[in-house]
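User: For my dataset I need records formatted as: sequence, then structure tokens, nothing else. Please produce one.
Assistant:
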Amino acid sequence: MQYMQKEYLTPKYMREFQCTGADCEDTCCSWWEITIDQSTYDKYKRIPDKTLREEINKNLVRNPKHSQSYASFKMNQQTGSCSMLKGGLCSIQAKAGETYLSQTCSTYPRLLNDGDEIEVSALLSCPEIARLVLLSEDAMSFTRIPELPTPNLRINKPGSSGSKKKQCILGLRELTLEILRDRQFPLQHRLIMVGVLFDNTAEPLRSGAYAHVMSFMEEFRGELTTNGELRNYDSFASDDQLQFQVLNNTLMAHLSEFLWNARYNECMNEYLQGIQRNGSSLSESLHTYRSVREEIYEPYIRGKDYLFENYIINHVYQNFVTDILAGAGLFDFFVKLAADYAFIRLHLAGMAAHRQELNDGMVVKLIQSYTKNYKFSNKFLNAILTDIQEQGYYSLGGMSLLIK
């Protein structure tokens, strides 16, 4: 029996990506554990270059309980960099070639999810990926290709599920992406529409009423073109004072717990200086927030809806199926997505107030460093989800208040 080779579903930005190496502003080889899978560890023992082999062995720490993280490299205590990083470049790759990189190093910033085809995406914690995703209007156009040039990639296999459930999840993602691409509506309106979809399908999906979910999706497609209330942005609640107060207070409550990335710390310092530019009281900071959104943020983002659109679509494409198959709640996914967008926009408002401008470089730096600081674990957004629930905003109306 012959088996067809799976194709790789690949967005445009991935076809253009090339690591910038020593020119990277925030190298992936610093302040993260560099894990080594067992097969790569065994390969290191056989490297022909004796000097390199001894250098690698000297800097490896064993952890034989896990084959994927069988060992890890020691980190330079002064620089925080991997011990094999020399002059901004990996000495293993430079001396032995790309095939000797571990799965961790070969794969990052790529993320590959195996389904009917292998879906390729990447993490915006990489500065070059952030530029490619955010600054190109067609970054999220897709092509299927027969192979990838990079060796030793780690491919995630999402948890198996019954075919009807998976069909529902894939259908929900497809409809979500359709909504997010529909530029006749402002992006915040599109997000709220996604919230309406998830609010109505979360419980049926959880309880296994898959036929109901599929039927509602078809009905909802029609509603997107005919339902005047759904199509009317003014139907949804807004309150910029409450929005600023909740977002700012929640961010400040968790900042010391989660902040570790130096570039993100620079962005946060700009945010704090900017939002308190005219005084630190609520009324003074709110005045700054309102004026900078009207005078700087909105003129910048007008005509650049694709920037956040690409960010959100990449997140949904990359995480939706795996998260929901793994048991995440559908409306929880929406709340985290909407909060994520709202917090990034809040940061940019403060940074714009500080610099009295907003440009592409500022946006890329903020989103890249924010992603690197917060999104390699679910702890931050899980904490935000809990706060939103406790503060009484865990509803479609509550999220509308935070993102409009």
